[in-house]
Amino acid sequence: MNQTNQAWGSRIGLILAMAGNAVGFGNFLRFPVQAIQNGGGAFIIPYLVSFLILGLPLLFIEWSIGRYGGSRGFHSTPLMMQSMDRRRMWKYVGVFGLFCNIGIASYYCYLESWTLAYIFHSATGTFNGMNQHQVVQLFSDYVSIGKTTLIPFEPIVFFLICLGINVYILSKGLSGGVEKVAKIGMPLLILFGIILAIRAVTLKSGVDGAVYDSSVGLNFLWTPHFDSIYNPKVWFAAASQIFFTLSLGMGSIHAYSSYLKRKDDIALNAMSAGWMNEFVEVVLGGAIIIPIAVGYLGIDRVKELAAMGGLGLGFKTIPYLFSQWGHVIGAVAGVMWFGLLFFAGITSSLAMGTPVQGFLEDEFKWSRRKTALAFGGIILILGLPTILFFNQGVFDEYDYWTGSFALFVFAAFEAVLFAWFFGIKKGWEEINTGADIRVSRIFRFLIMWVTPVLLIIVFLGAVFTPVGNDWAAAFHGLFQGQGWIFDHGSVIGKLMNSGLKEQLASATDPGLIADIKYRILLTNLSRLLLVALFVGISLIVRKAYYKHKREGTI
Amino acid sequence: MNTSALILMLSAIVGITAVTGYFFIKVLRTKPKDEPDSYTDNDGQPR
Asked: What is the ipTM of this complex?
């Protein structure tokens, strides 16, 4: 059996690290946007139902697989999953647990580095005196390599700093690095969140340039449109949000819990970390960005901005709004907002490094420092294309395949493995071993039937998403013999590059045509790179598996 | 704020905060397991 000298320092440290893994940019930027686009206040109903029937069961499954694998000496998912069933395919399913973390970290570190850059710009007063257009332009210049902002090649500089910080912390090990950061970062994140939320909900029209009271934004976010509950699109959005916000289907939860001993609790830990994430998302995430943005820009403008995603609101709009509060308070608010996002980001990216380190340590006996450097090297190589070709869609391509598609695939397989192959009897025993709370037997039923089936449905939904995500119209059209038109964002639409091809077909300007063709080329190349990454990891895992076979350790 | 929005917002905030607090306090109040447990900070502490 593989021995590791890594361990968690304390139970609170583990829970904060797990909650930090889950809390990310999505809690503050994605959740409020999803809510206003999917029924306002009524969104909370499908959202919480999804948390109970999809989120919590999957948390139990992932914590259990992790501790089970860890007790057999495996700290990453490939051999962890292989140790649960004799069919040889599971190690390749488990490859997703490394692939997702590497793929996501490659673009996530870049995203995280934006927050560092914006902390710097907020503190140095870059946004002071800028109008809204100039703040938007600064962001566009920032992500366009070669355009000077303040520092030459600024995105690369901040990316390297951010990656360096991650590598340094990871090299310090679990209790000495990851846990210490979680113990500092999570309380600070919650503190900054509470301060900003109080500021946001006390916004008054006519004060500091605000046009509307905070109540207008809160009304916009929370007014329930109950008819939306009957729309499958809303349920799909809620299930997806729960999935992303809890960092499910990535392999990082498994890696963290693999350092637990078999007699130690996972049920209460999973509940505590999961609900902490919900607190940050609903209570804090719902109280900051929308009330502030609506207070200054009004509902119609915020609707337009939200349609472009939460990142635009967070980076292109908020800095300008903070600058309306005066130089000092604006700078402090900016540092807090981007500091909050930085802590949300780094506690997640550290979780992405841990399974990779665990695998290298288990299979090659590398030191923590060496594994951290290897992780940093891989992320540097794979991350650079997302920076250099950000405007050509490479970043989005990584996000789609590793941060969305692969998660659904992995989660669906792990739920099926746990419930149907490992067996619900053994699985239920695993969840309850050492449990400090009595887990309701309802979860046994959910894990056995509801979660795997729901995940398969959600996965199929992602593959076959109809145009406009309008399922009712799509089925109606199908029964009328009009066929099924895939959305550009569906897996099939993405594979076919249907969105880009549509743009190409309608383009007349030769320059634009060349741009779109270049974009298609880079999109296909980035996919090839990701496929090569998956195949490369699979080959290494295969070798490790046969080594264990020979040694009789699996 | 309109009444339905206010009720929904307060219910969600109070409910989620209460459940989060309940589980977190339960973690803090639960007696540690006998050594050797998974955590190194309490190694060597008398029980």
From this structure: 0.95
